[in-house]
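(Protein data)
===
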Amino acid sequence: MTADTVTDLFEEHRPFLTGVAYRMLGRVADSEDVVQEAWLRWSSADRDDVREPRAFLVRVTTRLAIDRLRHLRSRREAYVGPWLPEPVITEFGPAAPDSAERAVLADSVSMAVLVVLETLSPLERAVFVLREAFGFPYAEIGAALDRSEAAVRQLAGRAKRHVEERRPRYDVDPAVRRDLTERFLAAASGGDLEQLLALLAPDARLVSDSGGKAKAPRRIIETADKVGRFLFAVAQDWPSPFEVRVLELNGGPALVFDVDGKADTVFQTEVDGGVIRCVYVIRNPDKLAGVRAG
């Protein structure tokens, strides 16, 4: 195998490996670090030991991601305020030509699901990502994690039950979700508190992630009245001038507020039954590089 072939094979698999790592870690920089380390392992591997390049790369990437996740857990325990995944622009392109497959990929990278995945053990998370997001056979997952197929099935069942119990089960038409997002923006920016409250479910929540590096609530805000009044107050005090973009982030529409040419805040909502159930607010500047203006 020539050096060019080694490089081309890895680059062919890079987007897939990055997708696995991101679902494991929830941070783009950490995912890229893991994939880069996988490249170093791949480029220096004994070719006689690599019969199936894809299997080798998945095994190395997954194990590196598990190790990185275990390390990150201790840092996240000291994180200031709620922790949310880093938002990513979801452009699946030709990798997911089928609408049903695309829906599965979008769901597996959604804020709601990634937040729930944080509650799994690193091993459970790896099994869940490989099985539920990418449809890997149990035997192949077992080979990647050096576990028996029976053990993997047990881990998969436990992880899936845990996620199903905690994840929101919203089946929302993308057009409806985008419409609600735009109405949410219009009500907040237009100073219409009554309309803003009408868009929120009675038990609505607001979860904000600033990492202590920007002004934001350090506790989850609950009930429509408190969430609506908080958002109303924020809208009245927003720095000027600013621009707003609607982007697809993590499989759904999101509002990106740019201040001085830089992404300052991301708002994304969970929608069900024609109302907003949860508002995610990301203000940690370390997590906004991927949605920079322009």
In short: Residues 174-291 form a domain with the Nuclear Transport Factor 2; Chain: A, fold (CATH 3.10.450.50). The first strand starts at residue 200 and ends at 209. The longest helix spans residues 53-77.
